[in-house]
Specification:
This protein is about 75% helix and about 0% strand. The chain is mainly alpha-helical.
Amino acid sequence: MPKDTIDTTMMYVVHNAFLRDLDALTSATDNDDPSVRATWDRFKTFLHIHHTAEDTHLWPVLRGKFADQPSGRAVLAEMEREHVGLTALLAAADSALSASGPWITDVQRLNDALTAHCEHEEERALPLIADLLTPAEWTEFGLEQRRQLGRGGGASFLPWLLDGANAETQRMVLGQLPPPARLLYRVAWRPRYLRGPRLQSASRPKA
């Protein structure tokens, strides 16, 4: 009997949102602008949650399926090394943004490294996830991110995630919500997000 398939499209959507924010930040010029700080704070919070959930609820589960597959274990080791490097770059950019000196160089380095990591993960790790994880294991990864967001976290996460997303992506993401949450998104969460400070940048489409 074939394994039930899982849909990893949400990983592309999340990656797109991270890189959208870094594109906007590398084009900004004033780190005293409230839009810069708001964009950065959301970005680093959601990136930390995403990578923590990968480290605790995705890579360990996947590693357990690689008893006789050194190539699979090597891919996960690369993902973990890249996370360590990204954490250091994130800290450097955070310090630079909090100081009065130049900061674009640090953000650009983070942008370059995260772009490469997302491409690497999409090319090497996501096919393994789609082939080997069960729907229940994939669901648990998503639930862990929701737990870390905390009660009411979707009210800030979803408008951020879909900022600049095309209509097809919006339909896909919102279609996973119960009707009351979709209504809240339309009448409260998204309008509140759009009224707040944020940098705007074109989204990076993903296949």
